[in-house]
Write a structure and sequence with these properties.
With 414 residues, this protein is an all-alpha fold. The chain has one domain. It has 18 helices and no strands. It has helices spanning 2-5, 16-37, 45-48, 60-72, 77-98, 104-124, 131-141, 149-177, 199-207, 210-224, 228-247, 261-285, 288-317, 320-326, 328-334, 336-351, 364-385, 393-403. The protein is globular. The relative contact order is 0.17.
Length: 414
């Protein structure tokens, strides 16, 4: 029954504003990830990266771009994708139950396939993979699928409080050993900030052959799994918010007027601005306790910006001018897995040694321009792709294996 009755969501069933939000989040993810692609994963990379031109990107435009990303983008779009993933799991369960089918086997296959995609992406394309994190966190999400909205609210609040305390402590410890004054130091000064030497990593990524990089990432994969101890609880919070949004009927209001989003916009913006502003000031004030509170306020401010972005996109999509401006994001949002993987392939070919080897040669300012250029090409690609096909290529493979049934790639309209 499962194989014949349950199929991927038809294009006509999709909610455009959800695809818009997903598309904008994918742009934000690329914008933030660009620093990692440039091998500027931490401030100490500048000056000690061991790459020609590593001391170049410290100009005014680079500083402005860096701080703009840190204040308005870093940590803002990952939660949005996580919430949409939790919402997607709920929608799969809902559609399965409407047909009298158990969604558990389907959801388990979804997570297993995502884990395979994530590991392959990590080893063969880029080490900044989030797919395996989503897959691992999804296992815990399945424990909450049957819980009521009241229970979900309690879990979300409880986990958020614990997460703030733990991450506040970790953030304070991190800023204690790496002050924010050193985020973009002058050439050579970064080596004085921390005793760790990342030049070997930068040399492999920036100058090594493709297979040398693959071997290095395969070696690092087990170590990266330790980070799941932190990323899973945090990601689970946003998964649960997405699940709650589905169960509480919030998604149904996306096409039925402004709903709660107009009321949330201004308070969320104020919380975001105050949280990030005070957190930045406290970070420079010094002292371990101040740094702990700074990290906590920064996370609260970040969540405020997340709510602000979602509310602004929903409200904009309900106006004629807003729909025209946001329409290019719809097609990209329909093929998130393909878009995400494409970003990794293009960026690593630009920056790594087996490609153009631009790592260490460009700063944050050029990184912003490259982000806009890459995403513009992805918008054009997705627009042309959906003229003929019904799914993105990676989405088609994922659904073909997940639903275990023949699935036509070509669009019926074409």
């Amino acid at each position: 029954m499962e194989r014949s009755d349950l199929a991927p969501m038809d294009t006509r069933q999709r909610i455009e504003v959800v695809d818009i939000i997903r598309g904008v989040a994918l742009f934000g993810i690329l914008l933030v990830n660009m620093s990692m692609f440039r091998l500027d994963m931490a401030p100490m990379f500048i000056g000690i990266a061991g790459l020609p031109g590593a001391a170049v990107p410290v100009g005014l435009w680079d500083r402005v771009a860096h701080w703009g990303i840190q204040l308005f983008a870093a940590g803002r779009f990952y939660p949005i994708l996580a919430m949409l993933f939790g919402l997607g799991c709920y929608m799969i369960m809902q559609r399965a139950e409407q047909k009298g089918i158990s969604a558990k086997p389907l959801l388990w296959r979804r997570l297993l396939l995502l884990l395979v995609f994530g590991v392959l992406h990590y080893v063969f394309i880029w080490f900044g993979d989030i797919l395996h994190v989503f897959a691992a966190t999804g296992v815990f999400l399945l424990l909450f699928m049957r819980k009521s909205t009241v229970s979900l609210r309690k879990w979300i609040i409880g986990l958020s409080i614990v997460g703030l305390l733990v991450l506040g402590l970790l953030g304070g410890m991190l800023h204690w050993v790496m002050p924010l004054e050193a985020v973009i130091p002058e050439a050579g000064d970064a080596a004085k900030v921390m005793d760790f030497d990342f030049s070997g990593l930068a040399e492999v990524m920036g100058q090594g052959s493709y297979w040398a990089v693959v071997r290095f990432r395969a070696f690092m994969l087990p170590l990266s799994l330790i980070g799941l101890l932190i990323t899973i609880p945090l990601t689970l919070i946003f998964f649960l918010i997405g699940l709650y949004a589905g169960k509480a009927g919030i998604v149904d209001r996306l096409t039925g007027g402004p709903g709660p989003f107009r009321r949330m916009l201004l308070p969320a913006l104020i919380i975001g601005a105050l949280g990030m502003g005070i957190a930045t000031w406290m970070s420079f004030a010094g002292g371990f306790l101040m740094l702990v509170f700074a990290a906590m306020l920064g996370m609260i401010g970040g969540i405020g910006f997340v709510v602000t972005y979602i509310s602004a996109l929903v409200l904009s999509a309900q106006t004629a001018r807003g729909r025209r401006l946001l329409r290019p994001f719809i097609q990209v949002g329909r093929m998130p897995l393909t878009t995400y993987l494409m970003q990794s392939v293009i960026a690593t070919l630009l920056f790594y040694g087996y490609g153009l080897g631009l790592a260490g040669r460009v700063g944050a300012g050029v990184g912003v321009l490259l982000t806009i250029g890459i995403f513009a090409m992805q918008m054009l690609f997705s627009h042309l792709w959906f003229k003929t096909f019904a799914f993105g290529p990676a989405e088609w493979l994922w659904r073909r294996l997940m639903y275990r049934k023949k699935l036509s790639l070509r669009s019926a309209a074409s």
